[in-house]
Amino acid sequence: MTVLADLFETNRVIVLSVDGQVFFVLGLAIALQSLKRSALALARPLPWLAAFGIVHGFHEWGYLFVPIQSGYLPLPATEALLVLQLLIKGASYALLLQFGVELLAVTTTLPILGRLRLLPAAALLAWGGATLAVSAAVAGFEPDPLAWLPEGRIDAALAAVGAPLAVGDVLARWMLGLPGAALAAWGLVRSARTVGPMARPPVGIGLRVAAGAFAVYALVGGLVGMPAPFPPADVLNAASVRDALGIPIEVLRSATGLVIAVAIIMALDLFEQETDRALAEARRHELLGRERERIGRDLHDGIIQSIYAAGLHLEEASATLEPAAEAPRGRIRTVLAELDRISGDIRRTIFDLRSASLDTLDAEEIVRSVADELRANTLVALDLRVEGAWVPDLTVDQAEELRQIVHEAFSNVLRHAGARHVAVRLASSRRRMTLEIRDDGVGFDQAAAAERGRTGRAQGLANLRRRAELLHATIDLRSAPGQGTALSLTMPVAASRRPQ
Q1: Any residues with CB less than 8 A from the CB of 374 and at least 6 apart, and which?
Q2: What is the pLDDT of residue 495?
Q3: pLDDT, tens digit, 9 for 90 and up, residues 308-337
Q4: Nearest C-alpha neighbor of 188 from the set 213, 167, 168, 166
Q5: Which end of the chain is less crowded, N or C, counting CB atoms within 10 A of the terminal residue's CB?
Q6: Which helix (H) or strand (E) element contains residue 352?
Q7: pTM as predicted
Q8: Do 66 and 82 form a contact (C-beta atoms < 8 A)?
């Protein structure tokens, strides 16, 4: 035991350096991963873990930096650095606790977790107050300087601020680090159950290993702190662990941190898989769009032109009939009317195909593209007005549902409204987007339309409302016979400033 303890003590600089590096690498690996556009629930809490890793890495390096600087700085400056390091420790563990709370909030259905997001901030303030109160009660206590390299004037600085440092260290671990690591372990287990079966094996393994490592870190990093003059820190502390095992607690924390870092990096493959799926889906949409475009072009250039030619032949045949042959001429007019109806149906089918092939996350582009198709295939006059200083940042699901809503609304105008003019207004604020579509068509009886929807004879309006629910949006529809129709959709969105 003595030989092993001496070995670690001799190489203490390496141990402390590695301890800081594993946490810093953990934070840096997450920070470099692009999470902003991810639709996965796990992406939202991970920035808190990245912040914890980076901040805690700097804290651990403080055990090297402060003793070195103490040889050059005046005593008050060294004392200030020790207090700053303590504050960084508390902040880092508060970030870990925030990660645990946020992770559970997105992996469980417990309503209370959504209301506990301010708990880490409250716990951090409580830790500061408790540290001051307990330090005053144990004034004069001088901690074992084993956490720092005893060089230069560090011993004198420890003698001056030793009690707050020891008390603050222990309470930070108990009040912030221990619950933070425990909640992180619980949340990662739940994440592994949720996303593990849907992802490649490294993800599930990484999440489970990280959960186990955080459970261990709750003990070695959250339960065991500096020696302090109150139980159980006066018995279970870094000094007693070193004497019992012959291994400094920093070695155990470094090893646990290394396992956490490697496991989380393995789990980050989940986002690479998400990107791969998104690219494959985009490629599928591109191929599908090309096929729809080809079908639409063939319908327009082939079948519609053939129908048009057949109509011309019938008109020519009608002109050659005797004036008294009214019955054949009437049948020809009936056939011509039917050909016009078929031609209109094919044009609407082309409109549907081209509208469904749009592939963009830009709300304005979605509305404008479908509107352009409406203009191209009908005689309806359409005005589009875009307002607001914000541009909606739609997710893939939001863009798809919005596309379907716009398509359904314009299809209703095309097929049923008999409108000559359509006015579209798209307005965005920082947190919501409003789409208004008004036409001057024949309108309809809303009560009768609702009854037809309940009996399954008309599903268009019901589809609009169901899609609005998927967007957590509100939809308002106003219409009356002979008075046109006005549809208004308001949905919550993230937004960014419109470029000037």
Answers
A1: 351, 380, 382, 410, 413, 414, 422
A2: 78
A3: 667 776 777 777 776 666 777 777 777 777
A4: 213
A5: C
A6: helix 326-356
A7: 0.63
A8: yes
